[in-house]
Design goal:
Blueprint lengths: L2 H6 L8 E5 L4 H13 L3 E2 L7 H6 L3 E4 L9 E5 L8 H6 L2 E4 L5 E4 L2 H7 L7 H16 L5 H10 L3 H10 L1 H7 L6 H5 L3 H41 L2
Parallel strand pairs: 1-4
Antiparallel strand pairs: 2-3, 3-4, 5-6
């Protein structure tokens, strides 16, 4: 659900860690713990791995010490801001089979874009590259779903203006949800650039508000851990 997925989609060249989203059933958590033991994964931060913290939206962080994955960071989540439940994400996932026969299940492009709408500076250029890579792959096979995805998620003023000109009816409908498309329909690239920045800032603020109480919980957990270590 993170940088590794972006690599598969052609929007990144390298990722230093692996982010995954999981189902929180007791059976699946037991399987996860078995896998973590095989990876010799060490918990490197609060909170601990439990349904309680995953359900709240926290990420659980590990560092692997198995020789083949030594030093790899593994971040695990089950609930994310603005995201559908796991069962829905799994149903509409993308599965890629590599040349060696390994199957890799990725968040669908629209879900991955949603997951990337964070406060982090590095995520916003990634969103632009994800949507652009998707457009380059499917521009000659434009389905209604793909056109809607490009219109609602593209972060390129030039691309939005071109899409609005090529698909005016779809752009009109999509502008009810994304009002800056009205500027794209009028070809106002300069105003569109400013509107995209404002859209990004608003999304960053929503993400900050979402994480604020979660960060407070993490600080309380860190404080409790320090007290236990240094009574």
């Amino acid at each position: 659900m993170g940088g590794q997925a972006c690599v598969f989609y052609g929007a990144a060249e390298f990722s230093r860690d692996t982010d995954i989203v999981i189902a929180m059933s007791p059976t699946n958590l037991r399987r996860l713990r078995v896998a973590l033991r095989r990876l010799r994964a060490e918990s490197i931060a609060v909170p601990p791995l439990s349904r309680r913290w995953l359900r709240k939206g926290h990420a659980v962080h590990f560092r692997c010490h198995l020789a083949e994955a030594d030093g790899l960071h593994l971040d695990i989540m089950a609930t994310m801001r603005g995201m559908a439940p796991f069962e829905t994400l799994w149903r509409r996932r993308t599965t890629i089979v590599t040349t060696d026969g390994e199957r890799h299940n990725l968040l669908a492009p629209n879900d991955l874009v949603t997951a990337k709408k964070t406060q982090r500076d590095k995520d916003w250029p990634m969103i632009r590259r994800l949507v652009e890579a998707h457009y380059q792959q499917f521009q000659h096979a434009p389905s209604p779903e793909r056109i809607r995805f490009w219109l609602l998620e593209s972060r390129s003023p030039e691309r939005l203006v071109a899409l609005a000109a090529e698909y005016p009816c779809q752009a009109t409908r999509a502008s009810r949800k994304r009002t800056l498309l009205r500027l794209a329909r009028r070809g106002q690239e300069g105003n569109l650039t400013k509107a995209l920045q404002e859209e990004e800032f608003a999304e960053r603020a929503r993400d900050e508000a979402y994480w604020r109480p979660l960060r407070q919980e993490l600080e309380a957990l860190r404080h409790q851990r320090l007290i236990r270590r240094n009574p």
